[in-house]
Amino acid sequence: MLKPINIAICEDDRIQVELLEGYVKSWASKNKLPVRIEVFYSGEAFEFSWSMDKKYDILLLDIEMKELNGVQLAKRIRLEDELLNIIFITAIPDYIAEGYNVSAINYLIKPISEEKLFECLDKAIKKIPKEEEAILIDLDGETIRIKQEDILYIEAFSHSIEINTKEDKYITRKNISTIEKELDEKAFVRCHRSYIVGLKHIKKIGKTEIELDDGRIIPVSRRQYSNVNMAFIKYYRGEINE
Q1: Average pLDDT over residues 209-231
Q2: What is the rounded CA–CA span in Å between residue 156 and residue 191?
Q3: Is pTM beyond 0.70 here?
């Protein structure tokens, strides 16, 4: 399951808040992305929440607010947080230079266009650090964590599987179909009834075998060749790896 994207709206106009919430929900629905939206009606309210938990990925930030305005808030944020994606929203274009100074994603002028906001959100989501994915296996009574990106391939035996990385191999009692469901489907492909291979580690694909970067050879069944080849092409075009 995808990790929800935490989006904050900091805006003191309730009508604008409703508009932005609606746009964000439409964008999330269009892209099939889980989002959590939190609304703050003052810079002080957001600053307090952010200081307690820097969980936010994207901040839609109004500039003209009473007391602590958006530019001041952004400068405070940047003292501690370079990763939060800030999108400035305002009725006047006088603060564009300030937006660059705090590395804002963009500067949107009211009335906000849904299309322009979608473009900003698309840009912001590409900058969110991806969470490192891993699997947990039982090995001699201990729980071992293996990073998925390190897995070259997995081979199935009668009652166990062997997980091969560049440095190690791990044998655990588990069904290959079960482990397949635990892996990122965009990064792995089933190439044979007894093998799953990591797409990033494939050097080349033939009709009957795969060669990995380190020279190891993995069998490909005739039945799976077309699916494996297509997954490999898409992976390296970036179509399924964003």
Answers
A1: 95
A2: 12
A3: no
